[in-house]
Amino acid sequence: MDDYTWQRKLRERKSKSSRWQLLLFLVLAVSIGTAAWYFGFFYRTPEYALEQAKLAWQAKDEEKFKQYVNLNLLTSRAYDDLTVDLFAYDATLNAQSKVMFEKFYILIKPQLSQGTEETILRRLTTGSWTLPEGADILKGRQLGIDYERFLERSQLRNTTFLEITKVDRHGSTALAEVKVREDYTQTDFTMVLSMEKADDGHWQVAYIKNYKEYLDTIAPLQNKDIADYIESTKAIVSDCNEKLRDHQIKFQSLTGTSAGKLSDYQKKNLKKLLTQEVIPTLQDRQAQLDQVPVPKGAQYLADQRKLSTKTTIEAWEHFIKGLENDDQTEFAAAETLHKQELAIDLRVDEIIHHTALSKNIPNLP
Q: What is the DSSP string of 74-141?
């Protein structure tokens, strides 16, 4: 190799080395800049808080989620929006009754808000919406309301997050626009989340600014579907209910006893009534209901009717076993299921009643 060639290759090596050094420097500078921007700026932005809240929900990280979402304030404000005009259009209530009910809902607000916060956190950690259990005051109707129905009216369980579309910051507050979808009617809606800075400087979702507007948008759509479904199933329900009333009269006549104990004759005929008439009538009613197309917004009502039928049949099956074996545990199981069925039927009646009242609400399609 002559001197010229050697010197040329040396210059090429130096040039290549310089380019690599420059590239390494640029990568290092970008990394440092990105880290400085992330920890110095983005780390304390509303966008970061929203992203962390989403990640916490996906990771089932309760503590992290609570850090970026003020659940106490959010559920409190949502409760006010949900109950503000709960009885406004109920013409069956006089002014005094409306005031009484409104005071009642104010009185039970702490328990319902706290219970809803706990329900949301159970959904986060378990992946499913579970109702209060055990000695919880919200279980059943211990507090004087049907919490299952309350939760359904909140639209919590059937609202799906889609994307964050916009964030506007105004000093120590911010408004974030979040696109969601109501699952039953497949209606898209842009929720506006009000965000605030916590004491340590990080951002939190404080409450849903237009939650009442969301409820007012979805409720008429669902009520319209429910009203249509009620109308299309009216004949089926009426016919089967008439048969069940006749069965009830027969049942009462067969259970009458002065000795406090059913005779073998009574047991035999009660079993025959239940297996050949009552249960087949329930099954037939549900089979007919299953043939009726269910509008999307009426799916909850259809599910509750099906659950009522299933629970009632299970209750009677336990009762029959109790008759066959004179087993008090079977009778107790039947009684427990019967109480559950009564609660479901009451819920169905409330939905139907509310739907009838909703016709008085302005702008119902």
A: HHHHHHHHHHTTTTTT-TTS-HHHHHHHHHHHHHTHHHHHHHHHHHHHHHHHHSS-----TT-TTSTT
Q: Quick one: which of 327, 246, 312, 256 has its CA closest to 279?
A: 312
Separation of alpha carbons 175 and 302, rounded Å:
38
pLDDT in tens, 9-42: 555 555 555 555 555 555 554 444 444 444 445 5
Find tokens 């099956």 and name the residue. Answer: 317
Burial class (CB in 10 A: 0-12, 13-18, 19+), 308: buried
- Measured CA to CA, the distance from residue 53 to residue 47 in angstroms comes to 10
Question: pTM for this structure?
Answer: 0.81
Note whether 194 and 207 are within 8 A (CB): yes
What tens digit of pLDDT does each residue of 229-277 get? Answer: 999 999 999 999 999 999 999 999 988 876 678 888 989 999 999 999 9
Question: Half-sphere exposure (CA, 13 Å, Cβ side) for 200?
Answer: 6
- 38 residue type, one letter: Y
- Record the tokens describing residue 131, joined without a space: 């109702």
Order of strands, sheet of 173-182, starting from the edge strand that comes earlier in the sequence: 159-170, 173-182, 187-197, 203-208
The Cα–Cα gap between 302 and 290 comes to 9
